[in-house]
């Protein structure tokens, strides 16, 4: 029986209306909004104004993401995230992306889950920092004991690197993407913290009235 009388009358915006971490969770566990599943060959993305999931583009190639793909709410890739990447002029100005491995196939997007951070890939796209945090589903029966990125099979990381090198390929258009630097849990947590601080600097005013 549902006894908690606290609830949201209206659905919250998945970027601005949800916290980056579940209440009472460890620092390495983050709330994640999933936009794309491994079975998708269409790139979906949250519409920044409405919060609805929309079609960004059909993928031209047959490449599909090798993991659940989404973002961490109330994060923003701004100057603090860019400062962690020596080769980037700026960050991409989006929520911080995250890829989540799950032993059980999850085929539905527009969902929330709790993910445990294990590392990341420093992606540089056209001179912009566009980091991809790598995580496992919290409590997963297979990947639940993974503590750091080195505990994952290397092919998992290779497939993510290949996907991000190719998913923007369009005939006649030159892409400038680097995904060489793979980092572990500690660096990933620093990137997440920087993105939370960037969010507070740029969007913190949206929440001031809620706290008063």
Could you explain how this protein is built, in words?
The chain is an alpha+beta fold. The protein has one domain (29-203): Alpha-Beta Complex (Inorganic Pyrophosphatase). It has helices at 79-83, 154-166, 185-203, 208-211, and strands at residues 29-36, 42-46, 53-58, 68-71, 90-91, 97-101, 111-125, 128-129, 132-137, 177-184. Strands 1-4-6-9-7 form a 5-stranded mixed barrel. A two-stranded antiparallel sheet has the order 2-3. The protein is globular and about 55 Å long. The chain starts with 28 loop residues before the first strand and ends with a helix.
Radius of gyration: 17 Å
Instruction: Kindly name the structural category.
Output: alpha+beta
Number of discrete domains: 1
What is the 3D shape? globular
In CATH, what is the class? Answer: Alpha Beta
Beta-strand proportion: 25-35%
What are the salient characteristics of this protein?
10 strands, 19% helix, five-stranded mixed beta barrel, alpha+beta, Inorganic Pyrophosphatase, single chain
Secondary structure blueprint with pairings:
Elements: E1 29-36, E2 42-46, E3 53-58, E4 68-71, H1 79-83, E5 90-91, E6 97-101, E7 111-125, E8 128-129, E9 132-137, H2 154-166, E10 177-184, H3 185-203, H4 208-211
Parallel strand pairs: 5-8, 6-9
Antiparallel strand pairs: 1-4, 1-7, 2-3, 4-6, 7-8, 7-9, 7-10
């Amino acid at each position: 029986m549902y006894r908690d009388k606290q609830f949201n009358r209206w659905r919250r915006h998945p970027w601005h209306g949800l916290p980056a971490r579940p209440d009472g969770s460890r620092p390495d566990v983050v709330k994640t909004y999933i936009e794309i599943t491994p079975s998708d060959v269409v790139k979906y993305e949250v519409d920044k104004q409405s919060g609805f999931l929309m079609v960004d583009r059909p993928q031209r190639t047959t490449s599909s993401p090798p993991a659940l793909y989404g973002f961490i709410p109330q994060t923003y890739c701004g100057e603090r995230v860019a400062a962690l990447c020596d080769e980037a002029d700026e960050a991409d100005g989006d929520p911080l992306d995250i890829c989540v491995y799950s032993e059980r196939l999850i085929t539905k997007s527009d969902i929330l889950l709790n993910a445990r951070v294990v590392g990341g890939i420093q992606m540089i796209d056209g001179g912009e920092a566009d980091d991809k945090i790598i995580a496992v589903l919290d409590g997963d029966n297979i990947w639940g004991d993974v503590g750091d990125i080195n505990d994952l099979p290397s092919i998992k990381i290779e497939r993510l690197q290949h996907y991000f090198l190719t998913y923007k390929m369009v005939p006649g258009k030159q892409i400038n993407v680097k995904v060489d630097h793979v980092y572990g849990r500690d660096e990933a947590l620093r990137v997440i913290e920087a993105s939370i601080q960037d969010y507070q600097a740029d969007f913190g005013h949206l929440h001031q009235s809620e706290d008063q």
